Fold this sequence. Notes:
- It is a single chain.
- This protein is of the alpha+beta class.
- It is built from 14 helices and 8 strands.
- It has helices at 10-13, 21-29, 34-41, 59-72, 90-103, 150-153, 159-185, 202-208, 250-257, 259-263, 287-297, 303-307, 316-322, 326-339; strands spanning 108-113, 140-147, 190-193, 213-214, 220-221, 229-236, 275-277, 280-282.
- The strands form 3 sheets. Strands 1-2-6-3 form a 4-stranded antiparallel β-sheet, sandwiched between helices. Strands 4-5 form a two-stranded antiparallel sheet. A two-stranded antiparallel ribbon has the order 7-8.
- One of its GO terms (molecular function) is metal ion binding.
- This is Reductive dehalogenase.
- Residues 244-274 form the 4Fe-4S ferredoxin-type domain.
Amino acid sequence: MKRFDERDILFARMNYSPRSPEYDDYYRRHPEMKEIDSALRGMPPLGEPGSATYHPIHSPLVGSAFQFLSEIKHLSEGEPAKEKTGVPEPEEMTRLLKGLAVYYGAKLTGVCAMKDHHYYSHRGREAAHYGESVTSSHPYGLVFAVEMEKDMILRAPGIPESLAAVKGYVDGAVIGMIVSYYIRSLGYDARNHMDGNYLLIAPLAARDAGMGEIGRHGLLITKEFGPRVRLGVVTTDLPLVSDKPFEFGIQEFCTLCNRCAISCPGKAIPRGDKELINGDMRWKISDTDCYRRWRMLGTDCGVCLASCPFSNELNPLMVEQMGASPEIMHQILREFNQKYKLRPMVKEPVNWFV
């Protein structure tokens, strides 16, 4: 499988300031993206005046959390202790690290046997690292998921949804920091991949760590929480036991469901078939159509999360059975469609907002 270049990721492109070296380099190589990206930059920034949801008191709840994440991400890497500690066998260390992540708040964990295609080919998010080749060769990745609160997500596309999302990033960053600091204290190398400082594609690592499948909306769908999770990854050279990917029927379910595509305000999610993307069959999301809606709204939308039946605590027995029974999939959808006209929504304001 081909590696993705982080310079092509929309969030990286939005960081390229006109007349900067990275801006000039990127649009020299990709002139077809210049007009599209310039139009996006001309829209109100997320959480700022001019967007539909802007609130002078509530919007900074989200922005301040992202500022915190930005100011700690340099701690993601560090030097390991000079001498290695004698550690237990990989099976026991795997249990220990998974338990540590759960203790600090992770809901799901898995270990991915890291391959080239999990990593970006080049960095692009920050000017200081723009264009650097990603040479990380850690063979293991501890992947973990934190849950995003359902009642906040069901308030999408309002500010509460964005607050739940950024809280997921904060929780994941803290868990990853603790785990990576611990591994380095044992004399092994470790890196925390967190918001704004990933060297890899977390959903692909999570899928290959046996935590779920990639759905129509391009997000990891877990059995337990659907796509209502945020992911963190700590890669390391500490020997661990990797988990195996598994399928529980999501590809077939998403083919039948289409809820996220129907409800997407930006029409960014395809209703048709999957495509071959870098050697992997997945549904192709329009990142520009998605992000344009973000800028209009002033939040990260989240309607696809709220509209996914798996976000809404399906009967676990039915989930376990659906991979072997197409009728179970139809039953899940019938019951969901009878209960909700389009998607579940919480309209009441958050009672602790000012």
